[in-house]
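Bumping my old thread because nobody answered last time. Still need a sequence for this structure:
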């Protein structure tokens, strides 16, 4: 029986590899017909604002590159697109990428952190008790933040990939809490939920931008231009909080009534997380998976595009 199972698993892995390689070839053929330098994957979060701004106000063009921004509402779909090289650069949590890079040496590298806000959203049915049923994604920034900042609670973790479903379950009293990114947390609060901003005292946000290996190796000029435009957007956004919120509302298709309630982070020029910060995340991943993570800091991070300011 074990031989049969082992044979089945080998056949499955081989067929999966063939399928992924086939998708990669198809994506490469389709890419030849795409008249853009970079395909960029972003998530519905305040982290995306500098990329939206650069796209909206022509900063990518000023830097000499053409960019297509694709919004992913499901992190798993984005990971699949990244794995099959249907996008060149994408936003993800540091903990997700540690696992991806551990399992695939060609997964690319972090070129900059992003800046996000992750409030706790609370059901009106929550009784204030120590035991909390909380909605999260398992291998994600939401699970990481819950473990970091909700240490006073006994967490009954419910792993739910779709943010809208988490919100529905909160409204129905089927969850007590959920960790959501802004502005989705504010969108949820507008439906009758409570939003609590937790004290994120860390120096870095847990989300990062990742370029695939092929782009890093073959298109360094384009990668540099992306970060030039990103930095230009961060500078241009200073003092323009209302415009940033309005752009997030527009790009994410949210109700304009929530605009003034969106919490924005302090946006930074391109920078990479410190070794200490990455080590904390790595230790959390090792505990989560109950296995040793061997990928090194230098294998995870590329410092070539860090701002000199």
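Sorry it took so long. Here it is:
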């Amino acid at each position: 029986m074990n031989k049969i199972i082992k044979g089945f698993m080998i056949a499955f892995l081989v067929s999966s590899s063939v399928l992924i390689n086939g998708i990669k070839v198809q994506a490469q053929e389709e890419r030849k017909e795409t008249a853009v330098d970079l395909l960029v994957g972003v998530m519905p979060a305040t982290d995306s604002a500098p990329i939206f701004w650069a796209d909206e106000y022509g900063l990518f063009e000023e830097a000499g590159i053409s960019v297509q921004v694709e919004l992913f509402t499901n992190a798993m779909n984005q990971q699949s697109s990244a794995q099959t090289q249907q996008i060149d650069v994408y936003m993800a949590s540091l903990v997700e990428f540690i696992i991806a890079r551990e399992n695939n040496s060609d997964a690319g590298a972090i070129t900059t952190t992003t800046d996000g806000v992750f409030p706790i959203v609370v059901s009106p049915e929550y009784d204030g008790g120590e035991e909390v049923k909380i909605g999260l994604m398992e291998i994600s920034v939401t699970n990481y933040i819950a473990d970091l900042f909700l240490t006073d609670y006994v967490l009954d973790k419910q792993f739910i990939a779709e943010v809208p479903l988490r919100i529905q379950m909160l409204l129905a009293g089927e969850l007590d809490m959920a960790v959501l990114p802004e502005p989705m947390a504010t969108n949820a609060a507008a439906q009758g939920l409570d939003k609590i901003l937790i004290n994120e005292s860390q120096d870095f946000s847990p989300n990062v931008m990742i370029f695939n290996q092929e782009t890093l190796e073959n298109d360094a000029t384009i990668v540099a231009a992306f970060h030039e435009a990103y930095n230009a957007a961060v500078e241009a956004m200073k003092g323009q909080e209302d415009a940033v919120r309005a752009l997030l509302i527009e790009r994410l298709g949210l109700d304009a009534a929530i605009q003034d309630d969106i919490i924005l982070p302090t946006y930074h020029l391109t920078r990479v997380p410190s070794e200490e910060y990455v080590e904390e995340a790595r230790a959390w991943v090792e505990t989560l998976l109950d296995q040793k993570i061997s990928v090194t800091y230098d294998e995870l991070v590329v410092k070539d595009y860090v701002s000199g300011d």
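Residues 1-10, 12-28 have pLDDT under 50 and may be disordered. Let me know if any region looks off to you.
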